[in-house]
Structure formats: C-alpha cells, structure tokens
User: Fold these one by one.
Assistant:
Number 1:
Amino acid sequence: MTAVDIALFATVVGSIVLFGGAAALALGWAFRDGQFDNFDQGSKSIFGPDEPVGEPTDAFPGANL
Amino acid sequence: MAVTVAEMSQHDRAKSAAERAAIDASCRGPVLVFASSAVFWLLAGSMLALLASVKLHVPYLFTGSAELTFGRVRMAHLQAVGIGWASLASVAACLWLMCRLSRAELIYPKMLYLAGALWNIGVSLAVVGIILGDGQSVEWLDAPPYAPPFFVAALGIVSAWTVAVFRRRREPHLYVTQWYLLGAVFWFPWIYLVAQFMIFWSPAVGVVQPIVNWWFGHNVLGLWFTPVAVGTAYYLIPKIIGRPVHSYYLSIIGFWSLALFYSWAGMHHLIGGPIPAWLATASTVGSMMMFIPVIAVAINHHMTLLGHFHRLRYSPALRFTVFGAISYTLVSFQGSLMALKSVSETVHFTHYIVAHAHLGAYAFVTMIMFGLFYYMIPRLTGREWASSVLIRIHFWCAAVGITTYFVALSIGGWWQGRMMNNPDVPFANIVAYLLPHWLTRTLAGLMLTIGHVAFAISFVMNLAGWGKQRSGGPTFFVEPEKKT
C-alpha cells in the first residue's frame, strides 16, 4: 500500500466517520435540547407578534381575499 | 397608568418588527452582494447556454473559434449557473434565512464581502479559463485547477458565518429550514474538498475516479442545492400565507431521511459502467428510499397550501416557490425511477438526462430562488418591485420556457435512447430525428433568457430605488380587488 493509497483510504474512512458522527451528534443534541418535544410550537417559531399566525406576510391590504 | 391589552399588543408588534428590521439591516450588504452577483452569473450563464444550444442544430456556427466550441461553452455554462447563479443565490438564502430564523444579527459582515469577492473571482476564473481551454474533463468539476482555492476559501467563510449566526441565536427552537441550511453548509464543503482531493490533488486510480466524480456530481444537487431550496420553501410558503407547516413532524422526518439516503444515490449515474455491481445496486436502493423525504415534503407543502391556492394569483414569491416545490416532487420521483436499471439502459447518454437535470436545477431550485428573491429583496432594500409587468414576463417566460424545454428533450431523449439501443438504426438517423427537439430547446432557452433579462431589469431597478417604498402592500401579478 503506497502513501497515496493510505491517504485516500484515510479520506474515505475519515469522511464516513465525520459525516456519520456529525449526524449522530446533531441528533443527540436535538433530543437533549428538547428540539423534538413540541412540534406544534416548533412549527410556529417563524411567526411573531408583528407577523402572527393567520396573517399573510405577502399581505393584500384592503383586498377581498 | 393602566396599559390595555391592545396597547401591549401594539407594543409587542412594534418591538418585534424593529427586531426583524435590525436583523435584515445587519445582513443587507453581504446578502445583496451575493444576490447581485448571482443575477449577473444567471445572465452570463444564459448567454452561454443559448450559444451551446444553437450550436447543436447549427453546428458550423463559429467553427473558426476554438473558444466557442460546444464543449467549452457548455462547460462554462455549467460553471456560470451552477457555481455562479445557483450557489451564490443559495449563499444569499443561507445568510438571510439563518439570521431571520435565529433572530440574530450578522457579525463582521466585511468577511462576507471578502467571501463574495473570492467566490466571484473563482467563478470568473472558472468560466474564462474553460473558454480559453483550461477546463478539466470531470463533470461538475470542470473548473481549471487555479479556480477551486477561491471557492474553498469563500465557502469556508460562508459556512463559518452561517454557523456563527446560529450560535448567536436568540430563538431557542431550531426550525426545519435551519436543519436544512446547517446540513447544506456542512455537506457542501465536505463533498467539494473530498472530490478535489481524490480526483485532482491526490488522484485515486482507475474506476474510483468516476465513482468519486458522480458521488460529488449528484450530491451537489442533493446535499447543497436541494436542502437550501427545500428549506427556503419551508420558510416561504408558511410565512407568505400565514399558516404553520401542516405536519412539522413530517418535515423533520423528511430532513433526516434526506440526510440518510441522498448520499447513496450518485452511483446510479454509472449503472452499466465498470463499477462493482453491489455499488450500483446500493445506489438504486438509496434512490428508491428517497421517496420517503420527497413524499414527506410533497404532502407537507400541499397540505399547508390547502385552502390558500387562490393566493398564487397574487403573490409572485408564492407562485415561483410553489412552482419549484411541485417540480421538486416531479424531479425526485423521476430521478428515483431513472435509477432503475431497466429505465437507465434506455435514458442513459441521452437528452432525457439533460431534461431531468434542468427540471431539477431550474424548475425546482432556480424557481424557488426566484421566489426567495421576490420576497427577500424588498425587505432588504425597503422598496417594492417597480413593475408587475416585468414580473409577469419573468414568470411566464420561465414557466413556459422550462416546461417546453423539459417536454421537448424528454420525448426526444427517450426515443434517442430506444434508437441507440437498436443496432439496425443508423446513427445519422438518430441525429436527424433529434434536430426539431434541439430547435425547440433553443426556443425554450430563448424564452428563459428573456425572462432572466426581465428579472435582472427588475432587480437593478429595485437596487436603484425605483420601486415604491415598502410602506404599503407588495407588487402583485394583478392588483387584488378592494373590499366592498
């Protein structure tokens, strides 16, 4: 096995570990942090007092819609 | 003094609006730099595409110029629209959406100006280098060797800044769009660096090279453009209509199943090639598993919109985004079926693949990016779009153009494949059969280019302050009826 082969092998294995490991870490963090605890609340997190649920932001002022 | 609920509510609204305005202001400069350069490369890429398309049915056009041969012009087009337009627009999306969803201001914007400059230098070197003959014969990685360091540096800054904004978040919940964006800024640098390393810097030997090539080529769409575009749609559709995502649970399932299965799918490009059979089969399985995230996204977008379809008549951002979201379902279903060996043996090496690629890169990704621009730019510049006529021209040219393009090349490509598999059909007959399809492709490309010019004029007018102030409502396709 040449040095190039070893470098390529390390890249492939390292990538698998990095990719899989990062996904596992992210999933673990999300569970610990309670990100998946309340889906209903999560879906509303993009709305706020100035742009509440039920109020289109591409609003049609005065429109009969 | 007692404060009424209505006053409290007004106070909360004003405070929230001020916070959103401050966040938009913090990222205005860098996002507009990336968005403006994206529009420039869209126009440049369109011209290169038109030239390449015309040369298919007028083969003696510019034959005296090596710089304008089909091979070079087509590669330059791919770099201009792939690494130029779509990637720069994706970066603009990542930065703006991450700031808004994290409720955090962008810090040290000057570094992102540097990233924008590096990225544009890289794309310029790639496009001009290819035209001058320095291109490399690796699909999606055709840029000359002196261009990638600029992309890598710029991408590193963009990824770091996206993560930095997320780390400074005031919003505790990680919305599904943020999952997609964080995935994209992690995956793209990773696949780009690994592909550069294994193909150019320390080349793998033999068949491993095309394997890495198509692992990269497919994942550029699946792990860079797709997460950014789907994530953008998950923000825009609920936000525009003012209704939360139908099933948030399903949206999370969709993200994680994409993360799990998409990276398997690239080897279906090499079905029938000299690669281990298990590799192609595993890839076909991965492609089939992609039905899970795609169906999840399709159900969610459709059900979220249910009862609000009439808004497509008025909102340009919604109409472009929904066109893109529907195209995502179509292109993904089609892609999964194309991974079947029985289908692949007909469509491989034909124009059917070109049609499929444009359904993904244009009808899905580009249309959602157009939707984003129509929503985002007025909120950054404080001005509405100056002309609804230009928006109408843009939409109809883009929608009819890409549909015509897809239908013409899909039909032509399918029969091209059937004829190529029949040894009794002379090759010249296949070329003659394809001529009208190529001509239609050029006409469709011309429509798309007209749409892009209309879009670019709108964009420049907005930056120049020609639109009305955003104190009133947005610019619609048609003005809605007044309440009676």
Number 2:
Amino acid sequence: MCSDTALDYEVAQGRAQSFYARFERKDELQHQTHYCPGCGHGIANKMLARAIDELGIQDRTILVGPVGCSVFTYYYFDVGNIQAAHGRAPAVATAVKRSRPEAVVISYQGDGDLSAIGSAEILHAANRGENITVIFVNNAIYSMTGGQAAPTTLLGQKSTTTPGGRAADTEGYPLHMSELLATLEAPVYIERVGLGDNKQTAQAGRAIRRALENQVRGLGFSLVEVLAPCPTIWKMSPVDAQHWVRDVMEKTFPLGVMRDRTGEAMPKPAAPPSPALEEIPRILGVADEDLPQGNAHAVEGSREVDLEVRIAGFGGQGVLLLGEVLAEAGLDAGLEVSWLPSYGPEMRSGTSNCHVRLASGSIDSPLVSAPGILVAMNEPSLRKFDRSVRPGGWVIYNGSEFPADCARADVRVLALPFTEVAHQLGDARASNMIMLGALLEMTAVLPEASVGAALRRLVKNPRWIELDERALARGRALFREAYVEVGA
Amino acid sequence: MDAKKRDRGLLRIDQDECKGCGLCIEACPPKVIALSAELNHYGYRTATYAGAGCTGCGICFMACPEPGAITVLRAVSHPAAMAAREGAAHA
Amino acid sequence: MRKQLMKGNEAIVKSAILAGCRGFYGYPITPASEITEAAALYMPRCGGVFVQAESEVAAINMLYGAAAAGVRAMTASSGPGISLMQEGISYMAGAELPCVIADITRGGPGLGNIGSEQSDYHQVVKGGGHGNYRTLVLAPHSVQEMADLTALAFTLAERYRNPVFLLADGFVGQMMEPVEFPQQAVAAPTPGWAVTGSAETRCNVVNSLHMGVDELEAHVGELEKKYRLAEQREARAEEWQTDDAEIVLVGYGIVGRILKAVTAEARAAGIKVGVLRPITLYPFPTAHFRRLALRARLFVVVEMSNGQLVEDVRLALNGARPVEFVSRTGGNVPSHEDLFRYVQALARQLNPGARAEEECLAHV
C-alpha cells in the first residue's frame, strides 16, 4: 500500500541520522531503545539528535553520558561517546572541551545526577562558563534505582524514600537548579522547558537546538532543563504522565528562559597557539644553555667535603633562604647537595627549619638528625636542636648571651647579636646572610664565586643582592675576629 | 494518481519499534492514529495509522519517544521536485 | 645535561610537560600544592590546560575527560584528596584510561596532619576504589627520580591504559636536590581509542559499564591479563650492598634514603647489611625478595605507616625468612641513629659468636 504512494511523498520527519541505525545493546529489536513506553528521555534524545543533524555537527559532537535512566546514550547516539560517573559529567565535559575546543561537547544528565550528587560539578562548570551544552532531564524522581526521592521531588510527592510524601520539614523543598544557576554571572543561556503537551514539546526542541548553537558559536555555558514524564515510576499512563508535567510539575518548576545573554556574549578567545616542542625546555627553565655551568668554581684543594647543617629560626628570618644559598653554592662548586625544609603551618608562623647537606660523594639521606653545624636564629630553635649537634660540631647562635644551660663541652659556639649587626648594615632581615657568612668562613669549603653565583640565582632584587653581599662579608669578618685572629 | 485526492501527509509506523505509549495518539491534531487490536512481538498494542487524514504536520513524530517508530511523510506538490525524487528513487 | 637545584614537586611538573603531558586538573593540598602551582604556571605556557577544580572529585573526573579526549593528563594530591579521587580512579581503570596521579603523602587518618607519612600505601597500592582493578605505583626517593619516574609513569600509563601513581612522601616532594632533564620534549600522539570530536573517532566509546555478567567477567579478565603482564615486565627495585647482606633493610621513598645511611654506618661497623628499595610498589618486586632470601637471614621493613608495606614483603617472602618491622607515624621519621642501634642489636642476635669475638678484640 505504501510502496505505490511513497514515490509521491518525501520524508518530513524520520529517524535522525545522529542515531545509530542499529543499537547493539541487545540481540534483537536493535532499533528500539531501552526506555519505558512514554519516557521523556526518548523525546529529549530525539530532539538532541535532530539538533545535531540540523547543525551538521555529528562528527564533532562528543556526548558525555550520565548514570541513570539515560546511561545507555552511547548505544544510541552515533557521535563520540564518553560515559561518566554519577554526577560528574560536567567535570568530564569540562576537560573534554578544554582538551578539544573544536568538539561540541554535551553533558546529558538526569535530576538525581545533576541536582544531587553532581550539584557541585554543575555549579562550578556553569560558574566557569565552560563552553558546553547541558541537557538536564528533570522527572522529579530517581527512576533507574526504582523511585527514590530526588532533590527535585515535589512537596507531597510519594517516593520509596518519602513514603508519606515529601515533607518540607524533613526533606526540604524542591531544588530549582535552573534558577540557582541563573544567579551566576557566567552562563549565557538557561531555559526550562516541558514535555507536557505539543506546544511545550515544540519549544523544548527549539531550546535544545539553541543551547547547541550557542556552543557552536563559542558563546559559553548553556543549559536546558527538560521537565519530563516518567510514567513507570509515577505509576501513570504515558498520557496522564505527560499531562502531569503540564498540570502539576510546572506549578513547582515554572517554564521559561532564566538567562539569555546570547545577544551580548562574545565568542570566547581561543587559547594561544602551542609553542614548538623545541621551545619547551627553555620555557620550563631546564634548557642546558640557560643553566649555570656546573662545577664552575671547584672546591679549593681536592678536599673531601661532608657538611651536615641544620638551620632553624622563626618564620620570616630567612631560614630557608639561608639553606638554599648554601645548597645552591655547593652545587655551583661541584658538590652533591640536598636541602630539605620543614613545611606547612610552620612556614607561616612559629618555627621554621631546614636540613642542608653538601658532600663530595653521593648523599644517602637528606635528613640531618645530628648536624655538624647548627645555625640557631633564635633561642627556641637553639633549645630545640642543641642536643642533636654531633660532638666536635658548631653552633652559630643569634644572640650575644649564649644560654648557659645549653653550653656543651664538646660543641663550639659562635654567639653574636646578628640581628643587631644586620640592623647596623641597613636591614635586620639580612641577619641570615651574616650568619651564612660566618658559616662559610668557618667551613672554608665553598669558593666565594660560588656563593656570589648562588646569591644572584636566588635573589632577584639588586638592592638586596648588594646588601646580602655586604652581610656575607660581615659574617666572614665576624667569624675571623672571634676565632681565627683571636685564636691564632 | 490524482494529487488532489491525496492526503498532504502519510505515516509509517514501525510495529516492532513502537511501545504503544499512545503519546502520538494524544498529540495527533486530526486524530488519525489509534492503537492496534493485535499485539506486537513484545506484547504491545502499537500505534496504527487510520490510513487517511494525515496532514503531515509531524507533531506525532516529536511526541513519540522512539527514534524511528514513526516516520512522517509529506506529499510532494512541486512537479519538478517530484520528478527529481522519482529519479533518485529509481537510480 | 646540566643539573639544577629543584624541589621534587616542581620536578614532577617539568618532567611531565617534557613527557607530553598537556593537562593538569588539581585541587590544592599540603604537601602537594607546589605541583598544582607549578602546573598553573607552566601548563598554559606550554600549550596545555590547567584547571583548579572545585574538589578532588571533580579533578579526577576532569582527568577522566582529558584522558578520554586523548590528552596526556595528570593531577596531584595527598591522602584526604586521594581518598576523594578513588571513585574516579576506579572509573578510569574500568574505562582503561591512562593518567598519572602524584600522591605526596601526609599524615592520617582523617585530617591527620601535614607531616610526612607513607600511610597511603594501602589505598594507593591495593587499588583503593571499588571493583577489580589495580593501579601501577612508582615510589621515587630523590628529586631526580621524581623527574625520571614521572616520565616513566606516562609511558606505563599508556602502555597499560591504566592510572599510574607516583607515591612519594612529603619529604621527597618538598626537598631540593640537583636534577637534570632531557633536553627534548616528547610529542604525545593521540591514541586511536580516544574520543576527540572527529569523523575518525566518532565510533569510539569510553565506558566502564558492562551490563552482562559474562561481559563484565570478560572485561575483568582482560584487565587481569594486563596486570599479569605488568607484573612480569615492570617490577623494579634498587639493591644497595645486598650481595653479601645478612640483614636486608626494606623501605621506599625517603626511608630508602635513610636506610642507605644506616647501611653505610653499619658496614663501617662490620655488619653485613644491605638495602632493598622497591621502586615499583605495584607490581611488587617479588623476584628481588625471593632471590635475596636465598642468602640473607633476616629482612627488616621500615615504613612511616602502621604496617602496610610489611604485608607485601611477607607475601613476597612467603615465610622463607623472618621479617622484622619498624614503624614511625604521625610525621615522625625513623632516625638513622636509632635504626643503626636497632640493626646492631639484630646483628648481635644473629651472630652471638661474632659479638664475643668483637668483645675479645676490644679487650686486646
């Protein structure tokens, strides 16, 4: 009957090209979806497929599928498919889009997925203004798991977890995701549509197409919330369920455009072009030609070096920098070095300390539990570590009065008011470099040129380099005055 | 065949794909779709075109949750287009 | 190649970019934040993507998206954040997506503290998330290894299409040591299975759902095959003065460094000690243990956790040799002085005759 007349007719509405011809989900009836009779997902899927067809973006489209009744979208849509964890589709879609800006990325989610477990992911994807399209199918219930309450469940609506109907006192109120997201600055288009009758359905189709078009134009985040019937869980006939969307659901979730900035939105600027591979080492600061010549200023004489230093003070005294300059100078002098900080809140307040090792041979452990030299920039630091100094070692202490109870017969001490000296030099903050100068003079291992090179690598401000150099010299002189010249 | 006597539209319904939800019946403005008396492979009573009266509006198509259970055709009124289609169909 | 002084955490990012990583999705946490900060600085400059996610849950799912789109991508976190990522890691293993995750471990459980621990061993090495899967785990003990093993991690992640962990303690992340990098950046080809938004990849699906019971069992079987292959090919360990060792000290990360110091001191005291340092924690270097068990008399496991590594050592040795266990937690580090005394005592127990001999000599 059809075959004779078909020649006189052309297909006006038919299966979208963006659906696979056959669904390989099951062995038979491979053109049929798994959706229940009258399911809103089927309609939303069709609208989406038609919009993809109409915009000619099938090859470019990547559909991020959710967990829930629409979990099988990858069996149906003949586009690139990525299945996401429950609620996480906007996070997945974010990275897909950022990784492949030419792709058209769709996050298709249900209301349990988007408004409950994935409420953070959708909020932040929207707030970042990701240039993705979100299709949010809201049927006010967890359907796939058998009808538990969702954040979108209506007041009074019965579910398996609100057997007496949703009560505001204990379950709160239906969550209006579209309105919530429309309070954000970044989204360009948010509309709630329904599948409650022919008119609503037609508008839903237009909105979905627009949400996709926005992305193609590069405008930014678009979301269409689709109020959809779930006849099975609602325990209604498909037609009754459809009417319930229009007559009941819509009263809680009014339809309409919540946000439309598509008129004023400008396409997001494209990322700058990637640098050539050859440029990468230089950009990272690891290109050989940009690094200092190692072993530039070799240790004088072929001395065996094994320095174990612990530096401690309060945050802000330059404890870590002192250690860094020492380690950097050691590297410049061709030594093996390690620098290990205490970290965390100690960086922000209270005490700070670091372990530095310089050695001719390889360094086994970077931890210095028994230092040969302790640089104690305040009294609490001295008291924390003084017992750990190994016999024959040194303590360099910031203070003219060395606490008598800390004195040890087997440890030598250089106790001077370094902060005061630094203040006289021009800035109390240079006390760390004066103490380093004393340490360098005491150990007589590192060439001055290595220390200078290290300082210039770590300190960028010329004024500070000048001050630090004077501080280092002062420290060296102080040590000589105290020990070498007097001692000799 | 006389074009004037033909309906503007025509429906094809895939009896295997249809799940008999009835949304197309509800949606159809001229009310030319009904549920079949017989059951299909899955045991659904399926949508069936009355055979006449379709306007080709396509509303049933968008009301139907299945991808291809309904195909809506429209009469080709333009003779050139008709000829072109016939040519393509025979090729 | 020239060396420069650098923090382990920074070395990870630079090595990753040189290895073709062009996506970093992270959430700050001490002591791993420098990784995220370095990625924020360098990733965009090198043509990559950096996103600071709203949570570790989002970060790992962004990694899922980037990997699905065929981009080499990584994240970094620490214990509490890794706990949150376990969901996504399971999905990535299930969907066979490569990625690199750096765990710079801090103290736990709960909020614990920000001190350095190794207490993420179980949650990282044993899978951690739901389902039948494994993650490959590399355990660097120096800044140079932070760089080298990061590059290896990307290679392994793609070879096995599986998440790969860098499991380091806070010390290895925070310390600075000289490090050198390859002078040539790697171009990462897009894998054929990726979904890139093109006609060629339109048929590709990234998915961890297998509804049929037999279908899922077959999938798990395929994953298992990969893991068996990795066990045969990828297990790595460093042996340090083990040739004649009677006592084998076992530890990874910073503990491996301390054990080397203990070994030097013990050797100087005439005690035959060596170090077996697992570099891969999964696959576990079982063969090294079995071989050393032929000669060594005793194994001593030292870890900054409550007996997690020691379980794998006992499994590997399967009763062949006794295993002693030393643990520090809370951010405490086993000092090499304490360990040396401990090893001395063990040596005396093993060789009571030698002790008498020593004492005789001392009296001479």
